[in-house]
């Protein structure tokens, strides 16, 4: 029985051929018209950005403040709930308080230097 497909199959695409250059030109043309780059106006502005000049200590202090707010929010939400929902919110409160304690300790270590 003769094989119809050669072993290995013929490579019909030769990267060094003129066909490869034409393919690349076609691809660039299609990408230009079908996949245009987003205009600078279409990029959504960031709502929150960290100042590149912010010091390590000020970042830790600000993080501690954010965690304090998250803790107060979770406490208020937990007081208004019951059952498993309350348990979930209070467990989040516990995690936030642990994170805040670690950040506060890091701030103390930075201040001791």
**Largest sheet composition:** none
Order of helices and strands: HHH
Strand segment count: 0
Determine the structural class based on helices, strands and strand pairing: mainly alpha
General form = elongated
Task: Report helical residue fraction.
Answer: 55-70%
Brief overview:
The chain is mainly alpha-helical and 113 residues long.
Structural commentary:
- This is DUF3077 domain-containing protein.
- It holds the Pfam family DUF6124.
- With 113 residues, the chain is mainly α.
- Helix content is 63%, strand content 0%.
- It has a domain at 56-112.
- The mean pLDDT is 83.
- Helix 2 (56-79) packs antiparallel against helix 3.
Fold topology:
Elements: H1 18-34, H2 56-79, H3 83-112
